[in-house]
């Protein structure tokens, strides 16, 4: 990025780089959350899964029937891979957030850049996490019928799109009011626009409930709450990190623009 | 020339066709990466099921449907 004395707008590349970096940070932080709070639940669910499959396969084995095939990745490997998954996921979301910020910043009706970027992150969290969570709550291992995975994947992708459209509809609805409309009325209109789309989506998409009778309810609940916490950690830290990096970019440009000869600004 | 202003809003680049095309390419790349994490079973990564299995716990805890 060229730092001329003229106050030039930062490039898309500069914003994108900060989004990707913020996403990496957020992904690793949510990985720490998921590792420390989520892995015990995954382990417990896998233990149930293995007990079920052993009971089904060898009802009266000699007590120690090893799996025939060696797993491709050990459980320890999968626990390390958790960080790879959340880091890559965070990088993707950070890049998308930075792109959305670049393309939408001028349309967001606030003069405060921090509010703009935090608002976008909050909107993404509602559309990509909260709306899907209520319709298709996450499931631990041992829950879910493998033969319906394609159907469930398509439904999940549909609810992601519907969640984003719902947030967009809420913004459009709150902006559709006349100029002097009071704030509470805008909130009501926005909520109504959001809820209309969400309800239509919830009704149209198929219900999926593949939890078996015997799976412990408390484990399922704890797993789902931890999964929501993982996503909340990711989006909260992504929003804050991206906003912080952007404001540093703004400050640096400002000081370079106002005092080109001054001592170098800490990067 | 001292500019003692409050925090000046950070400008963003004008949405030129060039920025739009770059953004489209970036989004496509990011979605491919997301596919790799969330859904791929070796078709794209060419690693067999290795990457799929490696990121198994992450998929569950991020709420992506999995087996």
Automatic annotation (TrEMBL), chain A:
Keyword Coiled coil carried by entry: no
Domain of life where this protein originates: Bacteria
Residue ranges that the Swiss-Prot or TrEMBL entry lists as coiled coil: none
Keyword match Transmembrane helix: yes
A matching Pfam family: CbtA
Residue ranges of the TM segments: 12-35, 82-104, 116-134, 154-172, 184-205, 225-246
Keywords: Membrane, Transmembrane, Transmembrane helix
Protein name: Membrane protein
Automatic annotation (TrEMBL), chain B:
Keyword Membrane appears in the UniProt entry: yes
Keywords of this entry: Membrane, Transmembrane, Transmembrane helix
Any Pfam family matching the protein: CbtB
Superkingdom: Bacteria
Transmembrane segments: 20-39
Record-given protein name: Cobalt transporter subunit CbtB
The organism of origin for this protein: Winogradskya consettensis
């Amino acid at each position: 990025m060229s730092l001329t004395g003229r106050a030039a707008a930062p490039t898309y590349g500069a914003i994108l780089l900060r989004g990707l970096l913020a996403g990496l940070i957020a992904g690793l932080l949510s990985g720490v959350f998921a590792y420390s709070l989520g892995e015990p639940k995954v382990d417990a669910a896998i233990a149930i899964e293995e007990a079920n499959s052993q009971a089904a396969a060898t009802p009266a084995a000699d007590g120690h029937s090893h799996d025939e095939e060696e797993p491709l990745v050990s459980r320890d490997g999968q626990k390390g891979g958790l960080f790879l998954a959340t880091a890559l996921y965070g990088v993707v979301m950070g890049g998308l957030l930075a792109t959305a910020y670049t393309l939408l910043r001028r349309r967001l009706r606030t003069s405060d850049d921090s509010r703009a970027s935090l608002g976008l992150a909050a909107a993404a969290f509602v559309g990509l996490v909260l709306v899907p969570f209520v319709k298709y709550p996450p499931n631990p291992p041992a829950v879910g019928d493998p033969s319906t995975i394609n159907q469930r994947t398509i439904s999940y992708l549909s609810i992601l799109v519907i969640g984003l459209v719902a947030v967009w509809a809420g913004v459009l609805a709150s902006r559709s009011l006349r100029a002097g409309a009071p704030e509470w009325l805008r909130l009501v209109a926005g909520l109504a626009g959001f809820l209309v789309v969400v309800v239509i989506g919830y009704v149209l998409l198929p219900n999926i409930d593949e939890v078996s009778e015997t799976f412990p309810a408390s484990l399922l609940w704890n797993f789902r709450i931890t999964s929501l916490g993982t996503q909340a950690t990711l989006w909260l830290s992504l929003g804050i990190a991206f906003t912080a990096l952007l404001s540093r970019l703004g400050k640096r440009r400002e000081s370079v623009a106002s005092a080109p000869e001054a001592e170098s600004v800490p990067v | 020339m001292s500019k003692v202003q409050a925090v000046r809003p950070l400008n963003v680049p004008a949405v030129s066709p060039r920025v739009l095309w770059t953004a489209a390419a970036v989004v496509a790349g990011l979605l491919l990466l997301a596919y790799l994490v969330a859904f791929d079973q070796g078709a794209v990564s060419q690693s067999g099921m290795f990457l799929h299995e490696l990121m198994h716990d992450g998929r569950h805890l991020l709420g992506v449907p999995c087996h």
